């Protein structure tokens, strides 16, 4: 077991539906401690830079439109095996394939509007955390 940090985004549909508290309760109960957080309304440039690996894919434009449709909450989560654990708590990208009891199973509206983002590897986590936070905005336990 290794202590890790991962980047979480509560996407615009989760914020619109007042699910910040509900989702964060689940995260804290899963021992994913919130060690940094901010609310932002992403610009198109910020969203495109964040999702640069998906540029050119058929869903890219729709994803940008959604991610800029309202404010999001970006957070750094910290805990043992936080990257994998958060992916498990979040569930599969496509909510129809997500396990019952996961965040996406319970709160996603579609594959695109799937309520939450979580880094998929240590390399992505490092890049994504630095994309939104400076070191002095993060408060490790
Ligand atoms: N996405 C989409 N259509 C797809 C695949 C992905 O709209 O067919 C969106 C969805 O919001 C997803 C994001 O693009 O969360 C990034 O996709 P990725 O495959 O990296 O999934 P994730 O790591 O978020 O589970």
TrEMBL record:
<keyword id="KW-0479">Metal-binding</keyword>
<dbReference type="GO" id="GO:0006241">
    <property type="term" value="P:CTP biosynthetic process"/>
</dbReference>
<feature type="binding site">
    <location>
        <position position="93"/>
    </location>
    <ligand>
        <name>ATP</name>
    </ligand>
</feature>
<comment type="function">
    <text>Major role in the synthesis of nucleoside triphosphates other than ATP. The ATP gamma phosphate is transferred to the NDP beta phosphate via a ping-pong mechanism, using a phosphorylated active-site intermediate.</text>
</comment>
<keyword id="KW-0418">Kinase</keyword>
<dbReference type="InterPro" id="IPR034907">
    <property type="entry name" value="NDK-like_dom"/>
</dbReference>
<dbReference type="GO" id="GO:0005524">
    <property type="term" value="F:ATP binding"/>
</dbReference>
<dbReference type="InterPro" id="IPR023005">
    <property type="entry name" value="Nucleoside_diP_kinase_AS"/>
</dbReference>
<protein>
    <recommendedName>
        <fullName>Nucleoside diphosphate kinase</fullName>
        <ecNumber>2.7.4.6</ecNumber>
    </recommendedName>
</protein>
<comment type="subunit">
    <text>Homotetramer.</text>
</comment>
<feature type="binding site">
    <location>
        <position position="114"/>
    </location>
    <ligand>
        <name>ATP</name>
    </ligand>
</feature>
<dbReference type="GO" id="GO:0004550">
    <property type="term" value="F:nucleoside diphosphate kinase activity"/>
</dbReference>
<feature type="binding site">
    <location>
        <position position="104"/>
    </location>
    <ligand>
        <name>ATP</name>
    </ligand>
</feature>
<dbReference type="GO" id="GO:0006183">
    <property type="term" value="P:GTP biosynthetic process"/>
</dbReference>
<feature type="binding site">
    <location>
        <position position="87"/>
    </location>
    <ligand>
        <name>ATP</name>
    </ligand>
</feature>
<dbReference type="GO" id="GO:0046872">
    <property type="term" value="F:metal ion binding"/>
</dbReference>
<dbReference type="InterPro" id="IPR001564">
    <property type="entry name" value="Nucleoside_diP_kinase"/>
</dbReference>
<keyword id="KW-0808">Transferase</keyword>
<keyword id="KW-0546">Nucleotide metabolism</keyword>
<keyword id="KW-0597">Phosphoprotein</keyword>
<dbReference type="Pfam" id="PF00334">
    <property type="entry name" value="NDK"/>
</dbReference>
<feature type="active site" description="Pros-phosphohistidine intermediate">
    <location>
        <position position="117"/>
    </location>
</feature>
<feature type="binding site">
    <location>
        <position position="11"/>
    </location>
    <ligand>
        <name>ATP</name>
    </ligand>
</feature>
<keyword id="KW-0547">Nucleotide-binding</keyword>
<keyword id="KW-0067">ATP-binding</keyword>
<keyword id="KW-0963">Cytoplasm</keyword>
<dbReference type="GO" id="GO:0005737">
    <property type="term" value="C:cytoplasm"/>
</dbReference>
<feature type="binding site">
    <location>
        <position position="59"/>
    </location>
    <ligand>
        <name>ATP</name>
    </ligand>
</feature>
<keyword id="KW-0460">Magnesium</keyword>
<comment type="similarity">
    <text>Belongs to the NDK family.</text>
</comment>
<dbReference type="GO" id="GO:0006228">
    <property type="term" value="P:UTP biosynthetic process"/>
</dbReference>
<feature type="domain" description="Nucleoside diphosphate kinase-like">
    <location>
        <begin position="3"/>
        <end position="140"/>
    </location>
</feature>
<dbReference type="InterPro" id="IPR036850">
    <property type="entry name" value="NDK-like_dom_sf"/>
</dbReference>
């Amino acid at each position: 077991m290794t202590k890790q940090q991962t980047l979480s985004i509560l996407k615009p549909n989760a914020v619109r539906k007042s699910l910040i508290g509900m989702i964060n309760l689940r995260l804290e109960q899963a021992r994913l401690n919130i060690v940094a957080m901010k609310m932002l309304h992403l610009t198109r440039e910020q969203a495109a830079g964040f999702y640069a690996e998906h540029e050119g894919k058929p869903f890219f434009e729709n994803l940008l439109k959604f991610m800029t449709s309202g404010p999001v909450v970006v957070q750094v989560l910290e805990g043992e095996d936080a990257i994998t654990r958060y992916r498990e708590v979040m569930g599969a990208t496509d909510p129809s394939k997500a396990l019952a009891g996961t965040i996406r199973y319970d709160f996603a509206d579609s594959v695109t509007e799937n309520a939450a983002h979580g880094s998929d590897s240590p390399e992505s986590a490092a890049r994504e955390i630095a994309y939104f936070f400076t070191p002095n905005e993060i408060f490790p336990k």
